[in-house]
Amino acid sequence: MFSGKTILGKRLAHQLAYDFLDTDKYIETECRCTIMEFFQQHGEAAFRLKERQLLERLKDIDHTVIATGGGLPCYGDAMNWIVSHGVSVYLKADVETLYNRFKNAAAQRPLLNGLSDEAVLQKIQTHLTEREIYYNRATITIDSNYDQLDTLVQRLHEIV
User: Fold this and answer.
1) Which H or E element spans position 127?
2) Model pTM?
3) Which of 33, 36, 88, 150 could form a disulfide with 138 if both were Cys (CB 3.0 to 4.6 A apart)?
4) Pairs from 100-109 (Cβ < 8 Å, separation ≥ 24)
5) Helices (H), the chain
6) Could you report how far apart the first and last alpha carbons of the chain are, in Å?
7) pLDDT tens digits for 49-82?
8) For residue 15, how many C-alpha atoms fall within 13 Å in the half-sphere facing its CB?
9) Which of 42, 40, 72 lies closest to 56 in space, CA to CA?
10) DSSP structural state of residue 21
11) How many angstroms separate the CA atoms of 66 and 69, rounded?
12) 89-92 and 64-67 strand pairing
């Protein structure tokens, strides 16, 4: 969450003349509710299943930059699927950077909604620790802590 997936993905897709797809936005459109509402109505397990089903539907698309939700690669065999179906990128950011990006939008995130600042910081640390084993399997790792967006997009464009 808040590593820059959507913003960087859109810019990279534009530079490559590719389509762009954000899995969270796709699910919101398909389900006609926000991710927050989906979590409240159906729970996290149903959401993860919905994400995995979406991956299967995406297997035959080409020339598309896909931004996944932060948890998607960490459930079932999703990371294996991602790595085997394209070039995957881990936008690595440290806990402090992520926390600073979260502060203004924590209420929009189902896993952070209603938490104190200290609890949000702890949740970010816990998620990063739990998920990094999956993220580190990405084809490419980019440090998204300090560089400007245009610099990151250019670096990704050169690699891809």
Assistant:
1) helix 117-135
2) 0.85
3) 88
4) 101/2, 102/1, 102/2, 105/2, 108/36, 109/1, 109/36
5) 5-16, 23-31, 35-42, 44-58, 78-84, 95-102, 117-135, 149-159
6) 22
7) 999 999 999 988 999 999 999 999 999 999 999 9
8) 18
9) 72
10) E
11) 10
12) unpaired
